[in-house]
Amino acid sequence: MAHQSTLIADDIDAYLKAHEVKGLLRFLTCGSVDDGKSTLIGRLLYDSKMIFEDQLAALEADSRRVGTQGGEIDFALLVDGLAAEREQGITIDVAYRFFSTDKRKFIVADTPGHEQYTRNMVTGASTADAAIILIDARKGVLTQTRRHSYLVNLLGIRHVVLAINKMDLVDWSQARFDEIVADYRIFADQIGLEAFTAIPMSALRGDNITEPSPRARWYQGPPLLRWLEEAPLDAEAVEAPFRMPVQWVNRPNLDFRGFSGFIAAGAVHPGDKVKVMPSGRETSVARIVTKDGDLGRAVAGQSITLTLTDEVDASRGDVIAAAGQPPGVADQFECTLVWFDDEAMMPGRPYLLKLGARTVSAQVNEPKYKINVNTLEHLAATRLELNEIGVCNLQLDAAIAFDPYVEGKDLGGFILIDRITNRTVGAGMLHFALRRSQNIHWQALDLDGAARAAQKGQTARVVWLTGLSGAGKSTIANLLEKRLHTAGRHTYLLDGDNVRHGLNKDLGFTEEDRVENIRRVAEVAKLMVDAGLIVLVSFISPFRAERRMARELMAQGQFIEVFIDTPLAEAERRDVKGLYKKARAGQLKNFTGVDSPYEPPEHPEIRIDTTSLTAEAAAERIFARLIEEDRPG
Questions:
Q1: pLDDT tens, residue by residue, 414-450
Q2: What domains sit in the chain, N to C, each tagged with a CATH number?
Q3: What share of the chain is helix, strand, coil (3-state, %, to 5)?
Q4: Active site residue 126
Q5: Integer angstrom CA distances of residue 278 from 22, 306, 314, 629
Q6: Which of 437, 541, 596, 612 is an active site residue?
Q7: In degrees rounded to 5, what are phi and psi of residue 601?
């Protein structure tokens, strides 16, 4: 590799030392399809002499074989590594590349331009200090330009280059350049993007990339590389209040107990008073431990282990913070949410929320509005579809330590994960805690569910019967309750049809309403279990995610899922209520099994095959299971 510094040849130790203390700038390239993002990064790598000779030879061979430049070097191939990217000539995944100059080190994220890969662009932007937004000089400002600019601003990136590329294809027209800049400035003002630097360039030809271009003498600003070298590195993270999410409790032996993590913000010294959040327990720092020995000071960006002067309870996901300026603690928030998944966001559906090292269960309420990225208009919405951006309220199952995103990305930015598939389905930014989360607290009670159940001489449980309409759930549940009542057990039956006459009379049968229907029923069932009852729940409950949510509301062993397994053809043949006939005729929309899916349980505690068991035999089988588990061990 022909490095940019002669030190590597003359004094390798001096070169490595100089390289070690250089500042690091993380930046991304974004914009619409074919604006030249990959070509730009390839040119930067090539011109900064960060390509090995064998890589250059391979690049030249690939350019002849699959390149788009007529046999000349196709710089995009340096970062478009996926076969599908090379075949289509587009970027699909996020590609990260490292390079350096005498002044600074860089990590660049090449992000996709296609709308369907917006989630990948957000991934690349989430750790970036600066952004290069490319525009094809022939096309001007496009929808993806606006979307990516909005996201860059939303994610708090304040150092922005507007790279107006392919100027060679418009004869280096200053008028065209000024027209695009004026058009973009209008949009930038609308979204609150306070400043940007516009640079005319040709990534393919190398104009205004590392050196000023003689073809644009009318441009007096810096070439791109000089701008990257001189862009200010924010000192805000070091100056902010101390924050360190605990990633690992370090206990190598009985004599040492430390808390390891990456300092997200601020600085810390031995003797500093700190709080462990969300518990709020105050203590002091005893030592700052690293593999190279103890430190007298540690700052944002360092990975360390802290020992504390007191034995405090802290675990992964907790936050050690400055005692005088601790983060907030809440379980309900307003947030901006960017939806990544092909399957729409379901209000009320439980997702996993990961913020820092903490993972909790979360439900997203119906959006307050979604945002049209072209006009910035706030639009009414009941859900968010792929790549849509909206403002929503979040409810968590546990309080977390947080900072508003504008004050700190590490404790203000989160991702949502599908509980069934483990896909990352969304990313968001916390605005503030909802006031009601601060006003509502758990009231301590002297009696608990175990005491109430003991008074009744039984084990409180939820028996959740799920299956298609017409499977026989209600019939079996009714017979089971009678059998339990005869045996002296205290029960209550929550039936899908009956609940919709009262508690859920305001809900229809859309997917969102079905999710909310089960959420409410699960919460009622939880209260009844706490009252010491055996609760029989007879609902179609078609989605696994909601049944899992109901299970996780209960204590271990309290939830018994019973799959009333009746084939669709058999359930439809019975059609006691005539519902399938109406659904087939188009008179009933969103009917499970016809035009709405049913997701059968994967591992139910009990499976009832109604083609081989009568309703009476099925009820007796469930009864026997309950009675058997009630017997003393």
A1: 999 998 888 889 999 999 998 765 666 666 778 888 8
A2: 7-230 (3.40.50.300), 237-322 (2.40.30.10), 328-438 (2.40.30.10), 449-630 (3.40.50.300)
A3: 30, 30, 40
A4: no
A5: 36, 18, 9, 38
A6: 541
A7: -60, 145
